[in-house]
From TrEMBL:
Keywords: Transferase. Transmembrane segments: none annotated. One of its GO terms (molecular function) is transferase activity. It holds the Pfam family CoA_transf_3. This is CoA transferase. Signal peptide: none annotated. It comes from the Bacteria. The lineage of its organism: Bacteria, Pseudomonadati, Pseudomonadota, Alphaproteobacteria, Acetobacterales.
Amino acid sequence: MTQAPNLPLAGLKIVELGHYIAAPFATRLLADLGAEVVKVEPPGGDPVRGWGSSIEGNAVWFSVHGRNKLSVTLDLKKAEDRDKLAALLKRADALIENFRAGYLERIGLGPDVLHQANPRLVIGRISGYGQEGPYRDKPAFGAIGEAMGGLRHLTANPGQTEYPPPRCGVSISDDLAGMYCAMAVTAACWQVKGDPAAKGRVVDVDLVSSVFSLMEGMLPEYGLFGWVRQPQGAAIKTAAPTNTYPCADGKWLCIAGNSDLIFKRLMAAIGRPAMAEDPRFANNAGRCENVAELDAAIAAWTKTKPATEAEAILEAAEVPCSRLFDMADCANDPHFRDRGWVMEVQDPLLGQVLHPAAPFRFDGVSPQQMVRWPGPPAGAHNDKVFAAVARGETRPISP
């Protein structure tokens, strides 16, 4: 499958100078939405191709990471390859890169140079700390974004000092920066395309502020009251009962029973209806004050049942709950399959592979249609792309 009808970014042309995660994640989202994405890799390929499991040297992760993209290889240390890149960018609407701040300028391809060649080019730049400021030249990876952006401080269990606060298990700051960059670049392209006189824009996104942007009301709370939010563990202070409870089989069950009506249903389901009538638990404020007693009662019940059984009982009572899914649960869940969140994709390099669907839906387009092809080998489209550039073609290039 190489074409999909009615994708909203069809015709938009993006060049990716991305490595590892942040910029490639941004362009994967844009490619899933129908944009033409030409991924420019060094001769050995994006270093992320060496991450994780592989089959005959082909990285399994890259099947998803590079899907719907065209791959070309260029050595940007060579003048002739920089010229090829400049020619490629002349036909592009946007460039997305995630080198360290200032790298494009150091190789003679800063925004001023690129805008001389293509005045309407949108340039999306992702870096650790941003293109300006006292930290701009410091190196950073995703873990640093979590640490400095305020997230890692919150992932500890309250009062625990023996172990460091854990990361969430994925490169969340890279992914967030990629999403913000995709959104901002699309907005800038909308502006440029809507105004024949518009000039290209430079979009500056960084890992730290991408994480920092998620810190809800913590900054104004600190500014007004001097409050510093501390780790909450599996619960939250503003709603109860909302927590994750141990089950008889060693699994965990997340339960959100914090509205008044749901709380009554929850207490009836676990055989404690009298607690729902107790004035101390009549509203959320009272439940938050007495949350330890509530959590103990709920945990006493969940510990007597396997997670799937406890989940089924609470679902029958219309209490929001879920087991903590691992990837096997996700891959085999009937709702994941019915919605197409888990897709079976035929990859020429790997065979049949499971892909996560794009996280958006459009009427008239199935999730399967949005994955036109899996991640290709490095440089797979050199001949086709550079031949089209040499001919001055502006229409989208198919693989």
